Amino acid sequence: MPPLTYANYLDLEKLLTLQRPRSSPAEHDEMLFIVIHQTYELWFKQLLHEFEKVKRDFSAGDLFGAIHSFKRTRTIMKTLVGQIDILETMTPSSFSSFRDRLDTASGFQSVQFRELEFLLGYKRSSALAHVKPEFPGADRLQRRITERTVIDHFYDFLATRGATIPEELKNRDVTQPNGPDERVQQEILRLYKSSPDVSILFELMTDFDEGLQEWRYRHIKLVERTIGAKYGTGGSPGVPFLKESLFKPIFHDLWAVRHEM
Asked: How many CB atoms lie within 10 A of CB 75?
């Protein structure tokens, strides 16, 4: 076995062969398009990895473990937003030069991003319409529907801090999206005022949520400036579909108490 090196530890020889433009001759900006989206998928993988840890931290009542992870996920979201600045250096005409080579491929088919939404509690059947059963990872997405979300585990954390969580939330149908609950909000407000260390976690969670909303907004504006009102590749619904999730928070209850603080 050859000695471990930087290249073979990261499997770079394989990684660097995965950027294969479909246009011929290759359009210059297609390489950027591929690299950016592959990088997004790697960050989505990391976010899924981090939030699996957050679920464990929440249910174990591990405040500082959760704080550490939310600092990281918040910073990753800032990086995802920053990548849009790079992608926006590609003009609409540059994208048009290779767009037809995408055929039926579309970002709407990103299974990992849908997994992330489901993991965070934003579950909806409409998202499944763009992920056919034969797509790689479709089985993971179906499994996510039946799993408890980050917010369900957040209820566990609140309970370790003395919060009373309604039985119907503990036993809710986890195939449905999470939503706001005034009783949970009152417990959060109490902890905001009585536990400064817990309030740090709440603010980091809000930071992440704001970062996700910022990414959605920047992504929509990127699509608008690139293809306008056209349908997306593969017949995906484009901007109107993206706007459905715009300004919809993940951690509803943390936003709901802001005016009472």
From this structure: 12
Mean pLDDT over 3-21 rounds to 95
Count CA atoms within 13 Å of residue 258 on its CB side: 7
Spatial contact of 67 and 136, defined as CB atoms under 8 Å apart = no
For the stretch 183-242, pLDDT in tens is: 999 999 999 999 999 999 999 999 999 999 999 998 888 888 775 555 544 445 555 655
Neighbours of 183 (CB within 10 A): 14
Question: Would you list the DSSP string of 193-239?
Answer: HH-HHHHHHHHHHHHHHHHHHHHHHHHHHHHHHHHTTSPPGGG---H
> Domains in the chain, start-ordered, CATH in brackets?
27-97+109-260 (1.20.58.480)
Contact between 158 and 230 (Cβ < 8 Å): no
The model's pTM: 0.89
